[in-house]
Give the backbone structure.
Amino acid sequence: MITGIYTITNNVTKHIYVGAASNVTKRLNDHMCSLRKNIHVNSYMQNSWNKYDEDCFTFELLEECNKVHLYSQEHYWCNMLNSHNRNYGYNLKPTHPNNVSLVLQETKDKLRDKATGRKWSEEYKQLFKQKQLGRKHSQEHIDKAASSKYKVVFQFSKKGEFIKEWNSAVTASRELKISRTAISNCCLGRLKTSGGYIWKYTNTL
């Protein structure tokens, strides 16, 4: 089993594809099989294969190397042979010496355009929501979210004198260091006071 860097070359246009594999023979066979079936993931190379035919392509080992240096060598040869340039090569995805996944700006633009106006499924929304968990937001963002999600509460003295309107029990709790649950229970009539104050929702006034 040969580990190393391989190339697929169009002998007519001189376009070249550079790849890396722990088993070069198997990888080249996979490429050829996909191209023959017209299902290769690299549409640019597939179109060229369809146009010029199989006989115009050469599959060969460029360099045998240690698996540890596989991706750094792939990156080196892609840059040396300029295979990322559509005028000279078939490599569509940027390479990285540490095998970090990179995305072309062209791909980013296509994904953005495709997403415009899309209606997300409920499943996707839930996944996105879960992804947001743990993300830190500014206090302004938290207050804004609270004001839209929670009920407005009114603060009164024990004598019934109006003191302040709060956009939520959460905000009042944070500012006055009073239990949010206690404020809510007071608004619901379960407690007479909380933190030395009377609390009410707008719909209980």
Observations:
- The chain is about 40% helix and 15% strand.
- The radius of gyration is 32 Å.
- The first strand starts at residue 4 and ends at 10.
- Helices lie at 24-36, 43-52, 70-80, 105-115, 122-132, 139-149, 169-176, 180-187.
